[in-house]
Amino acid sequence: MLDAALWGLVQGLTEFLPISSSGHLVLVPAFLDKEAPDLATTAVLHLGTLAAVLWYFRKDVGWLIRPDRDPRAWRIVKLLIIGTIPAVIAGLLVESTLEDLFDSPSRVGIALIFTGLVLLASSSFSKLTRKLEDAGVPDALIVGSAQAMALVPGVSRSGMTITASLGRQFTARESARFSFLLAIPVILGGGTKQMLDLAGEGGLEASLLVGVAVAAVSGYAAIAVLIKSLTRFGLRPFALYCFVVGLIAILWY
């Protein structure tokens, strides 16, 4: 149960901060000399972070699930669906190779350094005036393609999508909003599928539910911290973190 709580805490804190939850679920067990959670467990823990993002953006979610009252809501729902397609396609294409990537802390370190470089590049963007309601199909495809890159452990989903949104001139707060709302379909689909598979195999243990709860609470806190930090400092502090941890991972392993 303690291990489940630990993985839930790691998942919750790193899912929304742009430092890669999947990468940390490889590195933390390696540093602590523990067995890393498998892909199924990781996917189930994502349901905790899904609860966090649904609650934090509950007003947006409520607005989007009742699009009949506002045509702008239905248009954004369609854009989120379009933005999800690249991640679904990429997941189907590389699913068989993901397990190998999860076995290599040094590769995660390289991916973290790549993430750091992307985050650092975000500081060069200017004229950030757009809101999510201004988004179009090109925005959805570009940000959605950035999300697909995060299938590689060590590449941060929120880091890629927020940076892509900033590059499309969305404000910092709106970039985070775009990123987290776009995460909902992917997390829901992947986490639900894996949870059903585990339940069917009799492998859904009660301790895993503790991890989900911890991930939900810590994930909510991480969203609040990121949005406040993003509007004040940008992504550079997180880039520095990725460089340091990535370098340690490469040198250690």
Outline the structure in words.
There is one protein chain. This protein has eleven helices and no strands. The protein has helices at 2-16, 21-32, 39-56, 58-64, 71-101, 105-121, 137-148, 157-167, 172-200, 206-233, 236-252. The mean pLDDT is 88. It starts with a helix and ends with a helix. The chain has one domain (2-252). The chain is 78% helix and 0% strand. The protein is mostly helical and 253 residues long.
> Which band does the percent of strand residues land in?
under 5%
Give the tally of β-strands.
Answer: 0
- Uncertain runs: none
Share of helix, binned: over 70%
What is the SS-derived class? mainly alpha
The total number of structural domains is 1
SSE string, helices as H and strands as E: HHHHHHHHHHH
N→C terminal distance: 28 Å
Whole-angstrom Rg: 17 Å
Overall average pLDDT = 88
Shape: globular
Largest sheet: none
Individual helix count: 11
In short:
This protein is an all-alpha fold and 253 residues long. The protein has helices spanning 2-16, 21-32, 39-56, 58-64, 71-101, 105-121, 137-148, 157-167, 172-200, 206-233, 236-252. Helix content is 78%, strand content 0%.
Kindly list the characteristics that best describe this protein.
single chain; 253 residues; mainly alpha; 0% strand; globular
SSE layout and pairing:
Layout: H1 2-16, H2 21-32, H3 39-56, H4 58-64, H5 71-101, H6 105-121, H7 137-148, H8 157-167, H9 172-200, H10 206-233, H11 236-252
Helix pairs in contact: 1-2, 1-3, 1-10, 2-6, 3-9, 3-10, 5-7, 5-9, 6-11, 7-8, 8-9
